[in-house]
Amino acid sequence: MIDVDQAGVRVDGVTLLAPVSVSVAAGEVLVVRGGNGAGKSTLLRLLAGSRHPTSGRLRVGGADVDARDREFRRRVAAMIGLPPFAPDLTIADHVLLVASTWVDGDEASALARSVLGDLGLGGSGGLGARYPHELSSGQTQLFGLALVLARPFELLIVDEPEQRLDPEHLAAVVRVLRARRDDGATIVVATHSDVLADALGGSTLELAAAA
User: Fold this and answer.
1) What SS3 class is residue 189?
2) Which residues pair with residue 55 across a beta bridge?
3) Which of 183, 126, 125 is nearest to 149 (CA)?
4) Which residues contact 210 (CB under 8 A, 6 or more apart)?
5) Distance between CA atoms of residues 66 and 46, nearest Å
6) Which of 202, 186, 98, 199 lies closest to 146 in space, CA to CA?
7) Which end of the chain, N or C, is less packed with Cβ atoms under 10 Å?
8) pTM of the shown model
9) What is the mean pLDDT of residues 121-134?
10) Which residues contact residue 164 at a Cβ distance below 8 angstroms, ignoring those fewer than 6 apart?
11) pLDDT in tens, 49-65
C-alpha cells in the first residue's frame, strides 16, 4: 500500500524530514515514533499529499501521491491537526455531511451514527447535538477523528490522536483504530503514546531529529 523511497524535506537549508525509506503492506499498521522536530508530521503530510518531498519518492496503492487525484482521495483519509469546523452545524450534522459526501442515504446516516457512538460522542440527543464551540478540548479531538472516520478509506493517516484525551477516551480511540485495522485498513499513526503503539501493534518507524 505504501512505498517510501528516500523521501525527505529540506526548506531554506533546514531539514524538516531526513530522507527515509519504508514500505507498508495493505492491512498493516505503521507506528511512527520520535521526538519533537523529528519529522513525524511532515512524513504524514507527504503520505496524505498535503506536502511534496524535496528528495526521494512516495507511492500509495502503486501510484504517485497526488491529492488532486480522485482515486487517491477515495483511498486515503487523514487527520493531521484538527479540520476546520462550521460554527452553525452540530457535531452530528458535521459527521453526517462527511458521510453523505461518500455514501448514499441510509448508509450515510448509519455510518455517522456508528462513528459517533464508537467514539462516545452520542447521536443527536447527546454530544452530537452540541456545536463545536461547546466541546471540551478532548471532545474536540474525538470530533476531529470522527470526521475522518465517517467515510470509506483504504489508508488511514492520523497524527497523535491521543492528544488531550484521558485514559477512558484513549481506550475508545484504541478500540476504533483496532477495529479499522481488523477490517483490513492500512493505518499509519504518529504517536507519543506507548499505550496506543502497543495496542495497534504492527511495525515501528523511529525518526531522529536532523542534526
Assistant:
1) strand
2) 8
3) 183
4) 15, 16, 17, 18, 37, 39
5) 10
6) 98
7) C
8) 0.94
9) 83
10) 137, 138, 140, 141
11) 999 999 999 999 999 99
